[in-house]
Amino acid sequence: MPKILAFDYGTVRIGLAETDDLKMMAFGLDTIPTKEIFVYLNQYLKNNTVELFVVGEPKQMDGSHSESEVFIQDFIKKLDNTYHIPIQRFDERFTSKMAFNTMISSGISKKKRQNKGLVDKISATIILQEFLNIS
Hints:
By secondary structure, the chain is an alpha/beta fold. The chain is built from five helices and five strands; from the N terminus they run βββαβαβααα.
């Protein structure tokens, strides 16, 4: 069954999350260095069918785009030109804070909470689950 794949884009690394086969739940998949994302996706798509990409849309408190939007737009263009899979954006405000709070409430040690890759993966999971909740 086709899945939905979500991205928490960063210039250093990208957090990834995927749905279950019924597209009801989001699961953290991985954190990949940004420069290696297309190599990773090529391998992932050999073994999985994806019907939709969801890319986090970072916004300021006033609703305007963050400075990173320029980089995300370049990523989206390459994603679209490479795979021709539909792409939807989803507001990712507060997901990093929510990810950090999730780690605390889950009992993850302070040392592991400093792992920014783990925060990115959890953020991607939150983006995807929130997307599923309103879809």
